[in-house]
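Re: Re: ligand-bound prediction request (bumping)

Still looking for help on this. To restate: I need the protein modeled with nickel (II) ion bound, output as structure tokens. Inputs repeated here so nobody has to scroll up.
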Amino acid sequence: MQATSAEDIAIVLEQLRVDGYALASQYVDPGLLAELTDEAGGLIDRFVDGYRSEDYWCYDVAEQELPLLYRIHNLERQGAGRIADLFAGAELHRLAGGLLGRAGPTVCAMVVKTPGVAGIPWHRDRVDVPPLAALNLSVFLDRATAENGCFEAVPGSHRLADDIDVAPTRDAGPVVAVPAEPGDVLIHDVRLVHGSGDNASSAIRRSIVIEFAGTPLAGPVSA
Ligand code: NI
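Reply:
Sorry for the wait, this slipped through. Here it is.
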């Protein structure tokens, strides 16, 4: 991981407070990124070779032999050592801890945007916690673009009430697309209204997502 200064974390935290998401550009160094990408490739290759598990979420498509894989759940338990270290180790914890205070990892998954896979419908991950109490950190292994279904969100929607309806909130907008490069880390509040489009490209797009929950450093902004 790159050395991320307290000032860098303060900038990310301020955007997170206001918008509910922020991008830590090139947070993962190229060596680690290569190791994570290798392991991710291996986990997907074994699916192509016929491996099936309840942690490999996929669906059948008409006239296509191979089901479309869209998520590998419990990613830290799939026998990939570097990914397991990322979940348990210090690298992302430093960033999450800087944003949340005492923070621990709760869930780890790989989002797999196979070519042709449908987008993720708009949703909030959780509303059972206040703003800035639980965050998802996504490590991008591949470039995320509008064409391959990058993350989209309604800025500030993490501060909306627990019971708002997602679809009208998205329709009222504004909707902001967040492209990302390999090695970038996207941080978003679990309360944020967000989704992503279809992968209309011919290339796979993968990201490793780890949820951290902790004690918030500060309450929601008033504006
Ligand atoms: Ni989500």
